[in-house]
Amino acid sequence: MSVGLLLITHNHIGTELLTTATRMIGTCPLAATAMVVSESDDLDRLRAQAQQYTEALDQGAGVLVLTDLFGSTPSNIAVGLYNNPRVQVLSGVNLPMLVRILNYHELSLTELAEKALSGGRDGLFVCSDNTPH
Fold first, then answer.
1. What mean pLDDT is reported for the chain?
2. How far apart (Å, rounded) are the C-alpha atoms in residues 65 and 59?
3. Would you place residue 119 in the very low, low, confident or very high pLDDT band (cuts 50, 70, 90)?
4. What span, in angstroms and rounded, lies between the C-alpha atoms of 44 and 31?
5. Is the overall model pTM greater than 0.85, yes or no?
6. Domain segments of the chain as ranges
7. Does the first or last residue of the chain, that is N or C, have fewer Cβ atoms within 10 Å of its Cβ?
8. Which of 66, 72, 74 is nearest to 49 (CA)?
9. ∠112-118-120 over CA atoms, to 5°?
């Protein structure tokens, strides 16, 4: 039993990130899907869709929900799922976060959320002449 993964992002950002991370790792070892949000979508329909995805992805270990920009529509939809104790929501999704999630998929929901956050933070660099190659 592993944690499910739901990405809720503007347009196809989540789809592309998930596809890229899966190709890098060679597999997607957990149940995962990306939900596309565009400005023309009906908000009530999106909330219902997010709830359906969450229920489908939860195989007993909970669901990690990643969104792109805190305070945006995708983030607000994700926060609406947070009343479920088996859902953890993180904002600011990036490729290093996803790679960590796929590599450490066997962790618990709380541990996986922490691992994702560390991947996001540790994946940020200022490139300069002193940056190792």
1. 94
2. 14
3. very high
4. 24
5. yes
6. 4-122
7. C
8. 74
9. 105
